[in-house]
Specification:
Blueprint lengths: L30 E7 L7 E6 L31 E5 L6 E4 L45 H29 L2 H16 L2 H51 L10 H12 L2 H8 L3 H11 L1 H48 L1 H6 L3 H53 L5 H23 L1 H20 L16 E8 L9 E8 L4 E6 L5 H8 L7 E6 L2 E2 L5 H6 L1 E4 L10 H5 L8 H11 L2 H5 L18 H13 L5 E5 L7 H16 L3 E5 L3 H4 L4 E6 L2 E7 H17 L5
Parallel strand pairs: 7-12, 7-13, 10-11, 11-12
Antiparallel strand pairs: 1-2, 1-3, 3-4, 5-6, 5-8, 8-9, 13-14
């Protein structure tokens, strides 16, 4: 049985929100596993497996019943990675144990596009596909996932809060023990009473420690539950938002980790202890009302200090977080452009840009921390002063015969326990503010993300492309980039898009593959609008080579296969043959298993471009869009590209190429000239090519400025 790690970079991309169910939380200390079922989208499910439960074995695929509707048709199941938390409570060990079915998947309808062209069932984009991301149960959106996650987390935290009440109630055994020791044991000098009280208190302390461990275990699992619920949706929403924005949305994953750290930290325990303060306050009132009044006044003062602390630190903490995020973006930009800034001596300027944002962040953070320290000192003064007042007034009441010495000491201890959560909350307010800000960013990202709806599985596309009166006006400058672009291509046609720099060629290329959406107008594949195609099925039917080719830090084979591990080697070889790069790959010592670094090493710019071309041709897509595919190629590379064009057309692929070089123009059927975002001319190659040559001759003969 083959194995594959669903958590590896080569796993199928996350496509939607995750829905996770946490079962049996009060029995969390006995859990041996966290089992993730379903996909990394809205249909994901997590269940907690009791210790000693046998590992589930992969189930064979059910036989295909053509009478069933498509939603219930059997799907390929790469039975999803199982994160097991084993071992002792003090050390949770997480291992991933991926499992796959022993039988091949069967598809409904045509099963989505496979890696072997039309009709292939190997990689269908939905219910018939070969990856777990394709399994869906119904329409979902990220708002529903967020709401479900909040509901589950609130329920689990409520259980933890109930444990906290019991835990803090058991602590009363210590002051009661002090009271009994002082007023009963020392006066009666009874050893039996001393032993009995000591045993009772030790049992209470043992129960307190055990239950405290239980609630910490539970909080750890609540944190895992939150990240499991929202991790997939956040990554999917960030990837979707990055189409039209920057990559800063991906930092929301770090916000999710910050929320998890807060849920496993000491601050939330202190906050959960705060509701138990009335129990201690009641105990003080039972000792003597005067002492209860002192603690009540102190509690009100500490609450006001906590409220004031929140008011005066929220703004500077938010400012510090905003500038810290901007500083991180500057450092990431320096990392991406390391070669440029080193080659042209731009390191000082980069450091200055980063330092400017960092300085503002530190300035705001110092201001917030100064205020927080001031409030913390104030709260500590009132808490210690309260204990002094308790002892002093208790001694006065003892002199009057209203209290005993043991009661005075016990009341002081209980008062300290009543005020400690308030003081701890003030001290940990910074962590709470940061966690709340992180949650707000996660919430904003998920609520602003478009719906992740199921879409009807259509027959595999043939490759007909229709662009109808496309208008594109991106925010915020509202400059028209594309204006009324219209054309149609039949399956197997090839089109070259030419024009001056900045005329909108690359924007149109990204629009054809669905990376951006038109402001007005439609782009149709096989007469169906792009947004109405299932994203997975559409992606497998499209090949795209951008200007800036980015490869994953993996093997050449994995990059060609689009990071999928459920494909046959023959499909990878076929894509390499179409792109005419097999001989180039054979020159590497490890061939197709050659590992590519983060910066693309050991490949040159031209080799990366040709490898990206093979990735675009992988799976015999019906529509291939190439943006300046020969910008980094030499003469041999251009000849190989021309042969790749012929192979693609012979397989019925519809090819659109943005180019300026005549060598590639002679390989296409049609040419479209764009000027200022509008179609200047479109027609057969032999009709438009003389116009391009003549225009270049006129431009070349124009007088040049000196």
């Amino acid at each position: 049985m083959s194995e594959k790690n669903e958590a590896s970079p080569s796993a199928a991309p996350l496509a939607g929100p995750a829905s996770v169910r946490m079962v049996g939380l009060p029995q969390a200390v006995g859990l041996a596993a966290v089992k993730v079922e379903g996909t990394a989208n809205a249909n994901s499910r997590i269940s907690l497996v009791p210790a000693g439960a046998p590992a589930s074995l992969p189930q064979p695929a059910a036989p295909h019943d053509p009478t069933l509707p498509q939603e219930t048709a059997p799907q390929s199941r790469a039975e999803h990675s199982e994160a097991r938390i084993d071992g002792q409570p003090a050390s949770d060990v997480v291992t991933l144990r991926p499992k796959v079915d022993s039988q091949p998947p069967k598809t409904a309808l045509e099963g989505g596009r496979g890696s072997k062209g039309p009709g292939g069932g190997g990689g269908g984009g939905g219910s018939g596909g070969g990856t777990p991301i394709e399994q869906r149960l119904g329409d979902r959106d990220f708002k529903q996932v967020l709401g479900a996650g909040l509901g589950g987390t609130r329920h689990n935290l409520t259980v933890v809060a109930l444990f906290s009440i019991v835990v803090n109630t058991l602590v009363l055994a210590v002051p009661i023990y002090l009271f009994q020791m002082s007023d009963r044991v020392l006066t009666s000098r009874s050893v039996d009473t001393l032993v009995m009280l000591s045993v009772i208190v030790m049992v209470a302390i043992g129960a307190h420690v055990l239950l405290d461990m239980v609630r910490r275990f539970m909080l750890m699992r609540v944190a895992v539950d939150v990240e499991t619920r929202l991790g997939g949706p956040v990554l999917a929403a960030a990837a979707k938002a990055a189409q039209t924005g920057s990559s800063r949305e991906f930092q929301t994953l770090a916000d999710l980790q910050q929320i998890r750290s807060f849920l496993t930290g000491p601050v939330i325990l202190t906050m959960l202890d705060a509701p138990t303060a009335p129990i201690y306050l009641l105990a003080v009132y039972l000792i003597h009302p005067h002492l209860g009044y002192i603690v009540t006044v102190a509690s009100v003062v500490l609450f006001l200090v906590a409220y004031l602390n929140q008011q005066i630190t929220a703004a500077p903490f938010a400012r510090a977080s905003a500038f810290s995020t901007r500083a991180n973006l500057q450092s990431e930009a320096m990392s991406r452009n390391a070669q440029v800034i080193n080659a042209m001596g731009m390191i000082p300027e980069g450091v200055v840009m980063w330092g400017r944002e960092t300085a503002e962040s530190l300035k705001a953070q110092v201001s917030a921390q100064d205020r927080n320290i001031l409030m913390t000192g104030t709260s500590k003064f009132f808490r210690l002063g309260t204990q002094v007042a308790m002892l002093g007034w208790g001694a006065m009441l003892s002199l009057e015969g209203q209290l005993t010495g043991g009661m005075v000491v016990a009341s002081s201890v209980v008062a300290g326990r009543a005020l400690a959560p308030l003081e701890g909350t003030i001290e940990g307010w910074r962590s709470f503010i940061h966690a709340r800000a992180a949650y707000q960013r996660v919430k904003a990202l998920l609520q602003a993300s478009p719906l992740n709806l199921d879409r009807l599985k259509l027959p595999n596309p043939k490759g007909r492309l229709d662009v109808e009166r496309v208008l594109y006006v991106p925010p915020p400058n509202k400059k028209v980039i594309l204006n009324g672009i219209s054309f149609s291509l039949e399956p197997g046609d090839s089109l070259a898009i030419v024009g001056a720099s900045g005329c909108g060629k690359s924007t149109l290329a990204r629009m054809l593959v669905g990376s951006i959406n038109p402001t007005a107008g439609t782009v149709r594949l096989d007469r169906m609008e792009q947004r109405n195609w299932d994203p997975r099925q559409f992606g497998e039917s499209v090949g795209y080579l951008p200007q800036d080719v980015q490869l994953f830090p993996a093997s050449i084979k994995a990059n060609i296969a689009r990071m999928r591990d459920d494909v046959a080697d023959a499909d990878v070889f076929e894509a390499a043959e179409i792109a005419d790069i097999h001989e180039m790959i054979a020159q590497f010592a490890h061939g197709y298993e050659t590992q590519i670094g983060i910066d693309g090493a050991p490949l040159s710019g031209g080799q990366k471009q040709r490898l990206g071309l093979a990735r675009a041709f992988f799976g015999n897509p019906r529509l291939v869009v190439l943006d300046e595919p020969n910008s980094n190629l030499d003469a041999l590379g251009e000849a190989a590209l021309a042969r790749a064009f012929e192979r693609a057309k012979s397989r019925g692929m519809t090819v659109v190429a943005v180019t300026q070089r005549p060598a590639l123009l002679r390989s296409v059927d049609k040419i479209m000239m764009i000027k200022d975002g509008a179609v200047q001319a479109i027609g057969a190659r032999d009709e438009i090519l003389p116009m391009i040559v003549g225009q270049r001759s006129i431009d070349g003969g124009a007088p040049k400025p000196h």
